[in-house]
Amino acid sequence: MADAVRIACYGDSLTEGYGLDPDEALPAVLERGLRDRGIEARCLNFGISGDTTEDGLGRLNAVLDADPDGVVLAFGANDCFLDEPVDEVAARLSKLIETFRKRNVPVLLVGINAGLNPDGEYRARFEAIFPDLAERYGLALFPDILVPYQGNPSLTLLDGLHPNAAGVEAIGRALLPQVADLARGLRP
Fold first, then answer.
1. Quick check: 120 and 113 in contact, CB under 8 A?
2. Which of 64, 11, 72 is nearest to 43 (CA)?
3. Could you tell me the CATH number of the domain that includes residue 13?
4. What tens digit of pLDDT does each residue of 63-90 get?
5. Which pTM was predicted?
6. CB 3.0 to 4.6 Å from 27: which of 45, 73, 80, 188, for a disulfide?
7. How many domains would you assign to the chain?
8. Mean pLDDT of 7-13
């Protein structure tokens, strides 16, 4: 796999694979899916449970040091859970995106719904961050990482929030077409 494209999967517990074995985590699922499509790729796991966009900015250099060819950027769940100010979340995501753009590293932006936040106005403003950024920067957008498993108890861990291995597989299947597009665009 010396000529494999390197995709940094950069986010929180939904990327890391909270409560799961590393080979059940989203990056491993995506890597297998890409291989099944004939795409040689290494999907690097830069997910850390509990991380917010602020934490993501704090460890951006580790991702850059890995020299990825592309990035699947998936933050927001913990920001929403902690009621982080929407404008600050958007600004931090912008900074992450702009940093990758300066290095010519394409980004697939992954959105998330704010359904667990009780404030309807906050939910609407928060959920608008992702399509707004995708439009502003001309990025591909996977609208909502939760949709493939949310509300299905057979796809979640006992906490009812995090996906189990089958839930991660469901996310991977839904996300794979856009990750494959990203990977195909990285190298001839």
1. no
2. 72
3. 3.40.50.1110
4. 999 999 999 999 999 999 999 999 999 9
5. 0.96
6. 45
7. 1
8. 98
